[in-house]
Write a structure and sequence with these properties.
Largest sheet of chain B: 8 strands, mixed
Shape of chain B: elongated
Radius of gyration of chain B: 31 Å
CATH class of the largest domain in chain B: Alpha Beta
Number of domains of chain A: 2
Number of helices of chain A: 10
Structural class of chain B: alpha+beta
Number of strands of chain A: 8
Largest interface: A-B, 24 and 26 residues
Strand content of chain B: 15-25%
CATH superfamily of the largest domain in chain B: Histidine kinase-like ATPase, C-terminal domain
Radius of gyration of chain A: 20 Å
Distance between the termini of chain B: 111 Å
Strand order of the largest sheet of chain A: 3-2-1-4-5-7-6-8
CATH topology of the largest domain in chain B: Heat Shock Protein 90
Oligomer: heterodimer
Helix content of chain A: 25-40%
Largest sheet of chain A: 8 strands, mixed
Structural class of chain A: alpha/beta
Strand order of the largest sheet of chain B: 5-4-3-6-2-1-7-8
Order of helices and strands of chain A: HEHEHEHEHEHHEEHEHH
C-alpha cells in the first residue's frame, strides 16, 4: 500500500531518483520492496545493533544498501540531505524526546517533495493511566517522555485515544520545526508538511504508521498532479485513521470476493458486511500466507 | 466661554539629559563611542583591510578621551544630524552601520562629564564643538536646541592620520570619576571592546585603551586538511547574509559555545544556553551543555546593509530571539551543532580505551592546527575521518582462586601483583592458543 502511495511520487521525479533511508534490522523488507518496485538505488539503513555488524552486513539483500551503524539521533545528521528522500523511521520502542528530535532535524533539513514516515508502538501500557483511568497522569507521562513538547491543545481526555495523541505530538513537532525554518524565508521557499497516511494495525502490539510530504510552493502544484488523495487509504490531516485489520477469511471466501472486485456489491455467504467492506478496501494488498516446507 | 490654548510640554534640557543617560552604563556608553569610530572605518574601507586605522581610548580620574583616524565626521552631517537627539528619519542610514538608534554618541558624552570638546577633521573641513553642560542647560532656547560650532574649510587635504575625530570629556561627574579610578576599569573596557569589535580588530584596525592594545579574536577552530574540517554554511535570510561556522577548538570550559555577531560586532559570547540551541535536559538530541563539550565552537555572523534587519535587540548587545532571521538561523545552528556533538561524544567514549595509541580522535585533535573562522578551511558539514576506525570495547575480567595457587603463579611469572599475573597468563594464552579463532 505504501508502495502504491510512493509510486505516485513520480509526479515530482522518477521514484528511483529518491534516496531511501530506513531502519533495516536483519530483514531489510522495506529495502527489498523499494528496490524491486521502484529501482531506488541509493539506500541507507540505520542500524543501532552495533554488536552484530557482520550479521547485518551479511543479510544485506542488495549491494546498493549502505548500513550506517548508530542511533538515528547520531546518524541522521551525518547524512547528506540535499536531495529528495523517503525516510521511514520504523521505531520499535515508545516515543521519546530523541525521536522527536529526529523529526525536528528532518523538518529542518529535508528538501521539497521528500517524504517522512513514522512508525511507533502505541501500547497503552507505555503510558499507563492506571485503574481507575487517570488521564491527567497519562498526559503527564507523555509530556515527560517528550521533554515537555506536547501541544497545548492536547487535553487529558484526548489521551484516551493514545495513538492519536502520539500522532499529534509528532505532528506538532514537525510543524513547529517548519515554522522556525520558514520564518525568514520568502514565500516561494517556505516549506509545508502535508500528511498523506495514517494507519493503525497490530504487529504483535498495536502500531501506528503515519507520515507526510514536504512541499515548497512550486511542488504544491505537482502534488495535485500526483493525485494521492484518490487512493482509498490516503489520510490527510484531519481525516480519520485507516485501520489495517485483515478480516478472518478462508482462501475460498477470498477468491470468491476477489471475483466480484473491484465493485461495490460484493457478498459472501455468512461473512459480515463489515468484513467484506474492509476486505474490499484492501484486497489488492493482502498477502496470501501459505505453509510450505522448504 | 471656551478658548483654545496650549499647555507647554517641551522638556527642560536638564530633565532631558537626565532621562537620556539614565539607563546607560558607563561601559556601554564607551562601547557606543567606539562603534561610531568603527562606522567611520567601515565607510572608508568597506569589507577590505582596516590596517593603518586606529582608535585610542584614554580613561583616568580627570578625563575621558577617544581619538581616531577613521575619516572624521562630515560637517553637514554634524550640523544637521550628528548632534541631534534621535535619528532623523530623512537621513539615509550608513550601510552596515553599528549606530542604528541615533542616540549613542550624545548619550555617551552627556553621561560622563560637564565639559565636552569635540574636534573632527575630514578631507575638506574641520570643526570644533565645545559644550559646558551646566551653562547649556541654563540657557533657555525655546523651540530649537543648538550647540555652537566652529567650522574651518581646509586649503589642502590633511594627512590620513589627521582625518578623524577627537572627543574629550573633562570635569567628570563624581560617580564616573570613581569608576574610572578603579584598577579594574581599563581592563574590563579592554575586554568588552575586544569582544564586540573582534571582527574589525582581526581585519586590522588597532584599538588601544590607555596605551595597551585590545587583542582580537579568541575563537579558533581546529583543522587538519581532509581529516578534521569545520563546517561553513552561508545563506541569505530576508535581506540578511548569514555565515555560520561550527567545529571544535581547544578544551576550554568558558570559551566553549556559540558566538553571535551582527555587522561584525559580537553580541553573544560563548553561549551555552537554550538561546543558541543547547538542550534543557540530557534527553534531547542536543543535550544541556556539559563539560565534555568544552571543545565546541560555533560562530554565526549576520550582516546587512540595513542594520534594522539584523536580529539584535534595541540596545544592540543581545539577540532578539523573536526575530524571524534568528529563528530560521537557529535551525541551521542546531543542525550543524549535532555533528560536532556526535563527534565530541565519541571523543569522550574514546577515553575508555586504555591504550592511548588507539585513541584515534584524541590523536587527530592533537595533530590539528588552529585558525580563526575567517581563515580556516571549511566544508559544508563538520567532517572528520578517523571515525572510520571504531575503538575497541572493553570488559573487565575478575576471578577468584586459592591464595596459595595465585602466589605460586606470581612466583612462576616473576610479577608482583595479581593483576599482572592474570594479564600475562591471559595475553600468553590468547596469543599462543587462540590461533585464528575470532
Amino acid at each position: 500500500m505504501l508502495g502504491e502511495m510512493l509510486g505516485r511520487l513520480r509526479a515530482f521525479r522518477p521514484v528511483e531518483d529518491y534516496l531511501y533511508v530506513g531502519l533495516g534490522s536483519t530483514f531489510f523488507s522495506d529495502f527489498v520492496l523499494f528496490h524491486k518496485t521502484f529501482g531506488i538505488r541509493e539506500m541507507i539503513s540505520i542500524e543501532k545493533e552495533t554488536t552484530r555488524r557482520k550479521r547485518i552486513e551479511f543479510n544485506k539483500p542488495f549491494a546498493c544498501i549502505r548500513v550506517e551503524f548508530g542511533e538515528t539521533t547520531d546518524v541522521l545528521p551525518r547524512l547528506d540531505w540535499n536531495r529528495a528522500a523517503i525516510v521511514w523511521l520504523d521505531y520499535d520502542d515508545k516515543i521519546d524526546a530523541r525521536k522527536l528530535d529526529d523529526l525536528v532535524y528532518l523538518s529542518h533539513n529535508l528538501v521539497s517533495s521528500s517524504v517522512v514516515i513514522v512508525t511507533l508502538p502505541t501500547r497503552p501500557g507505555d503510558f499507563p493511566a492506571g485503574r481507575p483511568p487517570d488521564l491527567e497522569r497519562r498526559l503527564h507521562l507523555i509530556r515527560e517522555a517528550v521533554d515537555g513538547r506536547v501541544p497545548d491543545s492536547l487535553r487529558p481526555r484526548d489521551t484516551r485515544d493514545l495513538p492519536e495523541s502520539l500522532r499529534r505530538v509528532v505532528d506538532t513537532a514537525i510543524r513547529e520545526a517548519l515554522a522556525m525554518r520558514n520564518a525568514a524565508q520568502p514565500d516561494s521557499e517556505k516549506m509545508e508538511y502535508r500528511q498523506i497516511i495514517n494507519f493503525r494495525y497490530r504487529d504483535g502490539t498495536p502500531m501506528l504508521t503515519f507520515g507526510g510530504i514536504f512541499l515548497n510552493l512550486a511542488d504544491t502544484h505537482r502534488f495535485k498532479l500526483a493525485r494521492l488523495s484518490e487512493l482509498p487509504f490516503y489520510q490527510s490531516q484531519g481525516r480519520p485513521y485507516c485501520r489495517l485489520q485483515p478480516p478472518k477469511l478462508t482462501f475460498k471466501e477470498r477468491r470468491h470476493l476477489d471475483e466480484q472486485l473491484p465493485g461495490i456489491s460484493a457478498t459472501c455467504p455468512d461473512v459480515p458486511e463489515e468484513d467484506v467492506r474492509e476486505y474490499a478496501l484492501l484486497y489488492r494488498y493482502f498477502p496470501w500466507f501459505v505453509e510450505a516446507e522448504i | 466661554m471656551t478658548t483654545q490654548d496650549q499647555a507647554r510640554a517641551s522638556p527642560t534640557k536638564a530633565f532631558f539629559v537626565q532621562m537620556l543617560v539614565k539607563d546607560v552604563s558607563l561601559e556601554s556608553a564607551i562601547l557606543d563611542l567606539v562603534d561610531n569610530c568603527i562606522d567611520g572605518a567601515t565607510q572608508l574601507r568597506g569589507d577590505g583591510s582596516y590596517a593603518g586605522l586606529w582608535v585610542k581610548v584614554t580613561v583616568n580620574r580627570d578625563e575621558f578621551v577617544i581619538d581616531d583616524n577613521c575619516g572624521g565626521i562630515d560637517v553637514d552631517l554634524a550640523k544637521n544630524y550628528a548632534f541631534r537627539f534621535g535619528r532623523d528619519p530623512a537621513l539615509t542610514p550608513v550601510p552596515k552601520s553599528l549606530g542604528v538608534f541615533g542616540v549613542g554618541m550624545k548619550r555617551a558624552i552627556f553621561k560622563m562629564g560637564r565639559d565636552i570638546y569635540i574636534r573632527s577633521t575630514t578631507r575638506t573641513h574641520s570643526f570644533e564643538v565645545s559644550i559646558n553642560v551646566p551653562q547649556w542647560q541654563a540657557r533657555d532656547e525655546p523651540g530649537e536646541w543648538y550647540f555652537p560650532m566652529h567650522v574651518e574649510e581646509l586649503s589642502h587635504e590633511p594627512p590620513q592620520d589627521e582625518q578623524g575625530t577627537l572627543i574629550k570629556i573633562s570635569n567628570l561627574y563624581d560617580t564616573v570619576k570613581k569608576e574610572f579610578e578603579s584598577e579594574y576599569f581599563a581592563g574590563s573596557i579592554t575586554r568588552a571592546i575586544g569582544t564586540r569589535q573582534q571582527t574589525y580588530i582581526d581585519r586590522g584596525i588597532a584599538i588601544q585603551v590607555n596605551g595597551a592594545s585590545v587583542p582580537g579574536t579568541l575563537v579558533k577552530f581546529a583543522y587538519l586538511p581532509n581529516e578534521l574540517v569545520p563546517a561553513f554554511e552561508e545563506r541569505s535570510l530576508d535581506g540578511v547574509a548569514m555565515n555560520l561556522y561550527t567545529g571544535v577548538g581547544e578544551v576550554n570550559r568558558i570559551q566553549a559555545g556559540w558566538y553571535v555577531y551582527c555587522n561584525g560586532r559580537m553580541i553573544v559570547e560563548h553561549d551555552q544556553t537554550e538561546l543558541t540551541g543547547w538542550g534543557e535536559s540530557v534527553e534531547t538530541a542536543i543535550p544541556k551543555y556539559h563539560h565534555q563539550f568544552a571543545r565546541f565552537r560555533g560562530c554565526v555572523y549576520f550582516d546587512s546593509e540595513d542594520s534594522d534587519k539584523l536580529p539584535w535587540n534595541t540596545t544592540k548587545d543581545g539577540v532578539d530571539v523573536t526575530s524571524d532571521v534568528y529563528r530560521t538561523a537557529k535551525t541551521r545552528m542546531v543542525t550543524h551543532m549535532r555533528t560536532v556533538i556526535d563527534f565530541l561524544n565519541k571523543v569522550d567514549r574514546e577515553y575508555d580505551e586504555p591504550d592511548e595509541s588507539k585513541r584515534v580522535l584524541k590523536n587527530l585533535l592533537e595533530r590539528a592546527s588552529y585558525a580563526s573562522p575567517l581563515s580556516v578551511p571549511t566544508a559544508p558539514k563538520f567532517t572528520y575521518t578517523a571515525a572510520l576506525e571504531r575503538p575497541l570495547e572493553y570488559t573487565r575480567v575478575y576471578i577468584w582462586r586459592p591464595k596459595t595457587a595465585v602466589e605460586r603463579l606470581r612466583k612462576c611469572l616473576g610479577v608482583k601483583s595479581n593483576k599482572e599475573a592474570l594479564e600475562k597468563v591471559f595475553d600468553w594464552y590468547l596469543e599462543n592458543e587462540c590461533g585464528d579463532v575470532e
